[in-house]
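Example 416.
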Amino acid sequence: MTRPARAAGLKSLTTHPHLPLRQGAYRSPLRDERLASILGASLGILFFTCFFTGLYSHLQQNPISWLPIPTRPSGLYRFTQGLHIATGIASLPVLVAKLWLVWPRLVSRPAFIGVRGLFERIGLLPLVAGGIWLTFSGVANIAQWYPWRFSFTASHYWVAWITIGAMVAHMAFQWRTTRRTLTRPSRRPSLADADPHLGASHEREPSDDSTPVGVPGERLSRRGFLWSVAAASVTLTVTTVGQTFAPLRRLALLAPRDPKFGPQGRPVNRSAAAAGVVELARDQDYRLVVEGRVARPLTLDLDDLRRRADATEVLSIACVEGWSYSAQWRGIRVADLLDEAGAEAGRTVVVESLEPQGGFRSSTLNPGQAAASNTLLATHLDGEVLDIDHGFPCRLVAPNRPGVLQTKWVTKLVVI
Ligand SMILES: Nc1nc2c(c(=O)[nH]1)N[C@H]1C(S)=C(S)[C@@H](COP(=O)(O)O)O[C@H]1N2
Ligand SMILES: [Mo]
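Predicted structure in complex with molybdenum atom:
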């Protein structure tokens, strides 16, 4: 291409009425530094909360030996995972608003100035792509929609580290701007004003937050815009959080689960039929075995289970997908069984299910959890014999633990 031709091409890029680079394309005074900072700070708080609660959930499922997981408070995981899903959902409208707001920055030219600008720009890719991927994959996961073949947990986990790293870098770059715009509310350059190329050609008086801004067709004030984003965020949260926070259950129109719907008035993750255990769980020859590094291996039949089930505890099933319920469980204390079998104190115990295959067919109790007096092999739920979908003849319920580790249809405890 000749030089004049290239220049003409560039010129048409910046003047063509349908292209984002045209003059004055981003005139909306809603695109304001201060709004961008407020949304950015809100996203920062939501993402950090979501990150740490997610990390905690990851550690529960992939424990590190020197970092023991406490058994108290028993409802801790229920709370952290509820918060994880709630902050993830709440961040959706904020993320969309923030991206819309700063979009002129992304398409403005020159793309960056100097080395610092280059790094800042490069860092935006993992930040934007990561944020979008995390919220999208998270929502798909709680809707139990897995359109991809790779592991949700692994990708969600690693992308979270990359995104949070990029967010910390972004915050370092933006720290001064954010502080300045948040502490000096009176000066209001819009993002477009700051870039003469995208340039807002309009003149504007400094206005306060509640003034409807004077671009034709736009009646929304900055305050109105912020309120709309907050309202969208709160609405999404309130219409989903009832799946774990029962008082808001009736408002949980968008939640995939109702904490009071299912066999025995409780939701089910994987039914006995889906797990292929119906026959095995109803078999009169069922046995519960305690074996491994024990002095006296135990074999209990259904009558033995019934006779010994005299411990009751209030504990929760808190699914990683953000729904949960708390119930009264009756059963046998795992610690009592270990004592009876003559297991040494401080042992780790693998809990195995009748379920022939599948990722959730077994789980591990660390020494603290195995010894806790409120770790049960439950035979009853809210005073009734456990429904087969909830794990009959018996299921594990331990304190402060993700639902996926509360193994159903238990047939074996292996002391290691
Ligand atoms: N054997 C087995 N146990 C299991 C599962 C499973 O698929 N197989 N699902 C787990 C998951 S992900 C959850 S959330 C809880 C749900 O318990 P509930 O169906 O009794 O509510 O069971 C857990 N126990
Ligand atoms: Mo779950």
